[in-house]
């Protein structure tokens, strides 16, 4: 479902005499439907960079990143947008909140975007917000008014609203309490069970061991960083 072939990335620091940092050199791996692969490696190894490349936020200089039948490296911006709407979900560490949009709509939006009725999208959003212990009273308010932990859980609810065939998870259990961590791990297990191909960064080792089938140590592909 996800196939990374001979991918490399450098950053050019234009404000430092165009110094070039080689972050990833020739990484290849594939993730099958129903499989969860963890990106590991020391801080600075390039885990987040690789994740952003797979989501199409960072340009990739060399190689192929295939999600289904789309090569993200070559895709036009509108193809990337369609891929994100239909196929590729991303749970980032922080919610990007749009002021004045009610929490229920924030969570339901990925479903509305693919034509699910308002009623069904809202019902699914309510189930997820309840599961993730977001009290019902502020569902009609913007999550800007929520605590950091609540915003993180709203972000997770939004990320799991759709049953995406491929998902990227950036520290989905970071700073959650035990009960909510358990909910998130179950959501990941459910996604795998219905065939989602998942790539995740988990500093939480117990979580990684539980939900991930394999680990890719990104340091192996980082020039100058020992594995
Ligand atoms: N936009 C950027 N411009 C220049 N260098 C960058 C940029 N983004 C990341 N880097 C560099 O790429 C390297 C890898 O960073 P990255 O954040 O991917 O590491 P990481 O493995 O996710 O680390 P951590 O576990 O600490 O989050 C670092 O040396 C970082 O400074």
UniProtKB/TrEMBL annotation:
Residues in coiled coil: none
PROSITE patterns: ABC_TRANSPORTER_1, ABC_TRANSPORTER_2
GO molecular function: ATP binding; ATP hydrolysis activity; lyase activity
UniProt-listed InterPro entries: AAA+_ATPase, ABC_transporter-like_ATP-bd, ABC_transporter-like_CS, CP_lyase_PhnL, P-loop_NTPase
Keywords: ATP-binding, Lyase, Nucleotide-binding
Keyword presence, Lyase: yes
Lyase listed as a keyword: yes
Residue ranges constituting the ABC transporter domain according to the UniProt record: 2-226
Family: Belongs to the ABC transporter superfamily.
Name assigned to this protein: Phosphonate C-P lyase system protein PhnL
Organism: Sulfitobacter aestuariivivens
Gene name as annotated: phnL
């Amino acid at each position: 479902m996800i196939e990374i072939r001979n991918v490399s990335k450098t950053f050019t620091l234009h404000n430092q005499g165009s110094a070039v940092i080689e972050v990833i050199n020739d990484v290849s791996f594939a993730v099958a439907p129903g499989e969860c692969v963890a990106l590991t490696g020391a801080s600075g190894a390039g885990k987040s960079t690789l994740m952003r490349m797979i989501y199409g936020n960072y340009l990739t200089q060399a190689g192929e990143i295939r999600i289904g039948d789309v090569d993200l490296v070559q895709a036009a911006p509108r193809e990337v947008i369609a891929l994100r709407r239909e196929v590729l979900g991303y749970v980032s560490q922080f919610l990007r909140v749009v002021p004045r949009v009610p929490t229920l709509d924030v969570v339901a939006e990925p479903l509305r975007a693919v034509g699910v009725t308002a009623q069904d999208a809202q019902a699914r959003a309510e189930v997820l917000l309840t599961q993730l212990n977001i009290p019902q009273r502020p569902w009609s308010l913007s999550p800007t008014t929520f605590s950091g932990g609540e915003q993180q859980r709203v972000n997770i609810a939004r990320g799991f609203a759709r049953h995406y065939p491929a998902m990227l998870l950036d520290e989905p259990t970071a700073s959650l309490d035990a009960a909510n961590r358990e909910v998130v791990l179950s959501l990941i297990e459910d996604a795998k069970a219905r065939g989602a191909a998942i790539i995740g960064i988990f500093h939480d080792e117990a979580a990684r061991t539980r939900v991930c089938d394999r680990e890719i140590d990104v340091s192996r592909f980082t020039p100058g960083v020992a594995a």
